[in-house]
Specification:
- The structure is a homodimer of 266-residue chains.
- In chain A, strands 1, 2, 3, 4, 5, 6, 7, 8 and 9 form a 9-stranded mixed β-sheet that branches.
- Chain A has 266 residues and is an alpha+beta fold.
- In chain A, strand 2 and strand 3 form a beta hairpin.
- In chain A, 34% of the residues are buried.
- In chain A, 21% of the residues lie in helices and 24% in strands.
- Chains A and B meet through strand 4 of A and strand 4 of B.
Amino acid sequence: MMTDNATDRAGEDISPARYFIYLSYDGSAYHGWQIQPNGISVQQRLNEALTTLLRTPTGVTGAGRTDAGVHAKMMVAHFDAVLGSMTCDTLADKLNRLLPGDIAIDSIVPVRADAHARFDATSRTYHYYITRRKSPFAARYRWRVHTPLDMARMNEAARLLTRYTDFTSFSRLHTDTKTNNCRITLAEWRQTGDGDMIFVIRADRFLRNMVRAIVGTLYEVGRGRMDIDGFTRVIEGRDRCLAGSSAPGNALFLSEITYPQSIFIQ
Amino acid sequence: MMTDNATDRAGEDISPARYFIYLSYDGSAYHGWQIQPNGISVQQRLNEALTTLLRTPTGVTGAGRTDAGVHAKMMVAHFDAVLGSMTCDTLADKLNRLLPGDIAIDSIVPVRADAHARFDATSRTYHYYITRRKSPFAARYRWRVHTPLDMARMNEAARLLTRYTDFTSFSRLHTDTKTNNCRITLAEWRQTGDGDMIFVIRADRFLRNMVRAIVGTLYEVGRGRMDIDGFTRVIEGRDRCLAGSSAPGNALFLSEITYPQSIFIQ
C-alpha cells in the first residue's frame, strides 16, 4: 500500500515528524532556558540529550525563554525527529535517565508538522512566591521579605494590569521586540496553604523581565511606599525607571502554557 | 528585696539561665549536626552565632546528632546564657539574621537549670521520603527509586519493629554506645498528597544510621527481594551484615522531639 510517508527497507517510517516536549526544571544551576555562548542553559542540555539518543543533531524550539535562575513547572518546546519504532513514552524515559536530576521530561506528544511551541501558544502563566518566614526548605524557591505586605492593596493594584496593553514600563530598556503590547487576563495574589503569598499572572505573551518588574513594583505598593495612583502612573508612564526594582528570579516559576487543541494529533 | 539571683548594678539579672532552642535546617551543606574537626557542622554555626551575639563563648548541647546531609524539621539544643534585658524572641530574631538561610531558629524558651536536651527527650520522630517520579523540585529531599514498591508488605514488616528492642542489626558496626536497645512506638509507611511515600518512625532513642538501615531493608521487602520471614531473621540475627544497604541521607528528616512538660518554666 502506498502512503505519503517515506519508509525504509524494514518498513519503518523514516520521514521526520514534529513533537511537543513538556518538561519541568529547577533553574538554579542554569543561565536560563535559551542557549548562549557563556554558561549552561536548559535548552542546550535538552538538545545534547536528544542528539545523543536520536543519533542525529536535534534542536528544540522553546515556547519562550526563562531568565537565569528562574524555574519552570511546565515548559514546552517542539522538535522534529524520526522516532522509528521508539514510542514517545520510551523516548521520555530515556531522556529522563540521561538528563540531570534538575530537568524532568513530563511527556512527549505528536503535533501537526506546522505546530510551533512559541507562535501557537495562546497563554502563559507564571507563579511568584513571597514569604516572611525563614524556612530552610522553602528558601530556594521563595523571595523572603521582612516587611508586612498589604495583600488587599496589592490585589487592587494588580487588577489594574488587566486594563492596559502597553507594558513598556515593565520591560527591559533595550530589547529588539517590535511591540510591548500584552493582554493580561489574570493577575492575582493568593495565600498559600502554609501562609505564604503567591502571585498568579497570565497573559498571551510576556516581555523579558516583565513579571519580576511587576512583582517588584507591587511589593512597593504592599509595603506602603507606593499608592494605587502611583502604580497607575507607573503603567501609564511607559518608562522603566518609574517601576520598582525587579524581584529576585529564584522565586519565579513558569507554570503553564496553553495551545489550541487543533495542533495536536489524535 | 533579696533574691536568689545575682544582679548587676543596673539591677539586671546576671546569673546564667538555661534555654532550649528549637531550630530547623537543610543539612545538604553540612557534615551533620555534631561539631567535628573536618567540615562545617550545624552545631558549630549555632555556637558561633550565639557567641557573637552574647559576646561570650557559648555552646549548645543537641538532643542528638544527624549525619551528613540529613535534615531537621525540628532539632532541639540547650545552652546557658545571661540574656539580661534581651527577650528570647529578640535573640531568635538576631540569630536568624546572622545565621545562613539553611538554618532557621523557630523559638527559644526558658527551661529548668537541670533540663537536658538529650537526656530529657522522651521521643524522637524521623520522616523518610521515597518517590518514583522525577521531580526537579523534590529531588533534593526524596530518595528516587525505579522499582514499584509494595507498601502493604512494607507496613507488615515495619509493624514487626515495634515488637523488638535490640536493634544491633541496624546499628553501625563499631560504635561506643553501651546498649543497642530502643523502644520503637511507631513505624509506618504512608502515602503523601502528591503520590510519594513517607516513612514515619518514632522511638525513645535511635542508634547511629539506624533509620537509614531500616529504610534500606524495608525497601528490599517492598521490591520483593526479602519476605517477612527474612525481615524477622534480620532483626533477630543482631548482625548488621544481614540488613540491606543504608538509604541515602538526603531524604531523611529529624521531625519531632518531645520532652516532659515539667522541664519548662512557666
